[in-house]
Structures are given as structure tokens and as C-alpha cells.
Amino acid sequence: MNETEDHVMNDAILPPDYPITFPIFQTSSYLFPEGKKYRYSREANPTVEELERQINILEKTEKSVCFSSGMGAITTTLLSLIKPDDKVITTLDTFARSSRFIHDFLGKWGIKSEICPPGTENLLNSINEKSTVLVETISNPSLRVYDLKRIAEKVHSYNGILICDSTFATPENTNPADYGADIVIHSLSKFISGHNDVIGGSASGGSELMEKIDLMRRTVGTNMDPNTAYLTIRGIKTLQIRMKEINKNGISVARNLSSVEGIEDVNYPGLENHVDFEYSKDHLKGYGGVLTFRTKKKHEDPYEIFKLLKRVRPANTLGGVNSIIAHPKTMSHRSLTEEELSILKIDGQTYRLSVGIEDAESIVNDIRNAL
Ligand code: PLP
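That is the input. Now the predicted structure with pyridoxal-5'-phosphate docked in place:
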């Protein structure tokens, strides 16, 4: 256990009677005036506050705020930072709901939006005035890795704000604030909680920006509930050990799948032939648990493989202890046009695999047998 983890685990602001596990404060309100620090659980809740304290340590920021979902974190953060005539930029490979929010919703409300093609150079070329920029450390599901340092420098040269969604990397593999990101977002529904049993989100950054975001959260009501906070705190207890195993499995499964007959190619940020491998090496301590592969055969029914898998489970999520497979074209990225999918190099033969903590060989064998 490193020093940061030690701090996360041991420095909780303990409630009365010193329980060793931080309790769930399942209450909507607090006695007045004695409980006026928390007042009402949409505003603040001790269990949620404890999770925020832990995420803040993990992301090495000044203040963290938790939300009802990753999308709650993204939408509330953007709504609190921008006004009509401002510009928001993201790349096409950003999680589809995030880019849809920027383009379809914010665009309608007088905010200029630009969704540029994937890749650091394309994004850098798009930043030529004061902008709020949203980028993913490792994008879903194209798995592009971004040069956050250069992007932050360009964004800041115009006094803009860089928001980095680091869901796929987790704080175990990188801290975007170290590279200049102003706000770090997580969908806590994935690796951080780690057991596919919660939906939650977080935003972390400097106190001044985070105060604004917290005020918007209290107003739009995208607050996290205490049960979710409790389960996420429990997940964080094993985050380091899970990510260690997942990083190890990720690279092993990626390398071994590359030689499976029936697989055309494998895309993983830790492979030497990955388009952004230089940035991966520079920004990531481990390459994470998500990879994509393309089958050689065009399956009439893309779910045919799902039915033959015995260990890897098909689902619309990722980041748990069990390996999960998805078909982006018809599942997570079904809202994209054929043209957008082709820019992202996603077609009917593309599958996204989230590697869990099972034995790596058994994951590869399961896919080999299904193919
Ligand atoms: N950001 C990324 C990179 C995601 O993959 C997702 C969901 O898959 C989200 C944000 C949205 O998070 P949530 O599902 O918790 O709202």
C-alpha cells in the first residue's frame, strides 16, 4: 500500500463512537439547528462527504464533489462553467452521451460547440479561442490516449478550462491534474466502485471552480445518495489491488488475443503498435482493462458470440471484477451515424472487452472457443 492509499484508508473524519467502517447516513435531513452543517441530503451528506474526501486524495486535487452518475458529473460541471456564446470543444471519440450533450443540448442554448475528429493533433488544431475542452484520458471505445500536457497548455493560453474524463484510466493509472487538467471527472459506476453495482460520478479540481460546480449540483439535484457512496467507498478499499491485476490481465489478454485465429486486430493502449503508444507510455502507469478487437468474420448476428461465451458476460457496462463484453455499434454507440462510426473505426465486427480479475488465460480461451 502506498502513502496515498494509506491516507485514504486511515484518515476518515470519523463519526461519534468510532466505527471502523464509515456508516451510511440514511437521512434526508438533520435536526435544526444542531445539524445545520449538513441541513438536507441534497446539499450535503456525511457518507457522500467521506467519499469526496477519498477521491480528492486519490486525484491530488483541492476539492471533489460526487454526483448521481458520471453523466450527472459531466452535465453539472459543464452547466456551471459556461454561458451563451462560450465555446465547448470535445472529440468524436468522447463517450457518445457526453458529446451529444455538448452538441445537441448546449448547442440549442446558444453555446458554440465543436466535435472534432479524434486525436491530440486534431484537438490542438481546434483550440483557437477561449474554450472549455472535454477530453477523455483513454477514450471510450476508440481507446485513444491524449497528450494532456500540450492540450492543457493550449487551452490555458486562451484562458480556457480543461476537463478530463479519466474513467478508463482511474487514479491508479494517472492523475490528469499533474498534466494540467483543471477538472477531473469519473464515472464511478466503472472501475472505481468496481463491482457493477452502483451508478455514480465525481468531479475534482481547484476549490474555486469546484465551489461553482457544487452549487450547481445542489441546485439541479444531481447529488449522490448515501448508499451509493458507501458501496463506492467499499470499492475504493480494493481499487489499488484490482487495478494492479486488471492492468496485468489487460496487457496479457491484449497480446494473446492478437494471435487468436478469427481475430483481425486488437486495439489496446499498452500495445506497442497502438496509435498513441507514445502518450500511453508518458501518461499511464498501467494501461487499464479495456480493449477492443475486430473479428475476421462478419457475423450476421453480432450477439452469436455472446451466446457461446461461458465466462465473459455481455453487458452495457465495464470496469467490474468480472470480464464484460459489448458490441459498441449496437449497444453503447448506437446513436452514432455510419459516418461517425467509420471515423471511429467501429463496425459490426468490433467488440469491446473489459477485462476483470479472472485468470487471463481463461478469458482468452473463452473468447477463442466462442469464435
Ligand atoms: N464517461 C465515460 C468515459 C463513460 O464510459 C461513461 C459511461 O459509460 C460515462 C462517462 C457516463 O457515466 P455514467 O454511466 O455513470 O453516467
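Residues 69-71, 95, 136, 140, 165, 167-168, 187, 189, 199, 201 surround pyridoxal-5'-phosphate (CB under 6 Å).
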